[in-house]
């Protein structure tokens, strides 16, 4: 009797598969560039002249707002996108390479437009090197963590471990899990917009238009895939209410003479009264639409189960 031992043969195409391009990569780049366009528009909206900054007691930064947004928010979006891309089976190193290259080109273009890239060759070279290195780190590190750390956990969870049991529970209903992730991402994006938006116009537009549209789709999908969708609707309505109160009832200046306020540290004031018209526009209306979408999704799910 002879025994045979299977010796794994190295895939000759393994090296070429590390850098590929497919539909997943296209969706990745489209989403990343859309994120860059949104954050760039917010930064451009908040650009003000030095005289206006002085009038409203704002300190002019060392770099233009658009440069600061690209360095911070752009890197954050790139890191999150590559973290998700690294978990995908069809992902490859083309994702962080293309994303880092695109972000580097965008930021260098912004610096050239604002004349902050430098005048002599040495300064330009240093700025280009630092910019490329910064986006390469924020792109490749999250991708490699997801590729070689998170993806094995997702693809082959160990039921003997707590994390493995959690992964198995989440994989039983991937659409339900995805809806919760989408809800966190939507309201996380709102908080990000609020930190950038100095005047509140983009914040109000996001809370009144962008978030309700996204939550309508999320509630509809959740209702069509899982019977626990009402929990997601409650969470969305609660977050919408809390963020609306924080947006409309907080003042950094003196309390309006027509309202009763609670004095907070650092000059902030919180209006104790709730504005019914604002709550109707920002909370009640969107929550009613989400409930309708949830109901439609539930009807679709029940019809499919009875078929």
From TrEMBL:
Keywords: Membrane, Transmembrane, Transmembrane helix. The keyword Aminoacyl-tRNA synthetase does not apply. This is Uncharacterized protein. The chain crosses the membrane at residues 27-50, 62-81, 93-112, 124-145, 175-193, 199-225, 232-252, 279-300.
């Amino acid at each position: 009797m002879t025994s045979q031992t299977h010796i794994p043969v190295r895939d000759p195409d393994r090296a070429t598969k590390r850098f590929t391009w497919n539909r997943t990569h296209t969706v990745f780049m489209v989403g990343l560039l859309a994120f860059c366009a949104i954050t760039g528009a917010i930064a451009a909206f908040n650009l003000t002249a030095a005289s206006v900054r002085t009038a409203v007691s704002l300190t002019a930064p060392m770099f233009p707002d658009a440069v600061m947004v690209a360095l911070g928010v752009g890197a954050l979006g790139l890191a999150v996108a590559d973290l998700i891309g690294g978990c995908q089976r069809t992902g490859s190193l083309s994702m962080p390479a293309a994303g880092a290259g695109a972000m580097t080109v965008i930021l260098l273009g912004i610096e050239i437009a604002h004349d902050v890239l430098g005048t002599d060759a040495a300064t330009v070279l240093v700025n280009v090197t630092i910019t490329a290195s910064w986006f390469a780190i924020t792109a490749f590190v999250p991708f490699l963590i997801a590729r070689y750390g998170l993806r094995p956990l997702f693809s082959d969870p160990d039921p003997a471990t707590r994390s493995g049991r959690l992964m198995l529970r989440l994989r039983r209903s991937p659409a339900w899990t995805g809806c919760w992730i989408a809800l966190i991402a939507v309201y996380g994006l709102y908080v990000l917009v609020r930190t950038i938006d100095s005047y509140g116009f983009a914040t109000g537009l996001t809370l009144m238009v962008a978030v309700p549209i996204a939550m309508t789709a999320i509630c509809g999908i959740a209702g069509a895939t899982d019977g626990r969708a009402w929990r997601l609707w409650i969470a969305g309505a609660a977050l919408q209410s809390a963020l609306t109160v924080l947006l409309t009832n907080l003042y950094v200046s003196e309390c309006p003479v027509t309202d009763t306020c609670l004095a907070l540290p650092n000059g902030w004031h919180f209006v104790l009264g709730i504005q019914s018209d604002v709550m109707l526009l920002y909370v009640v209306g969107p929550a009613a639409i989400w409930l309708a979408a949830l109901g439609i999704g539930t009807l679709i799910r029940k019809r499919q189960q009875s078929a």
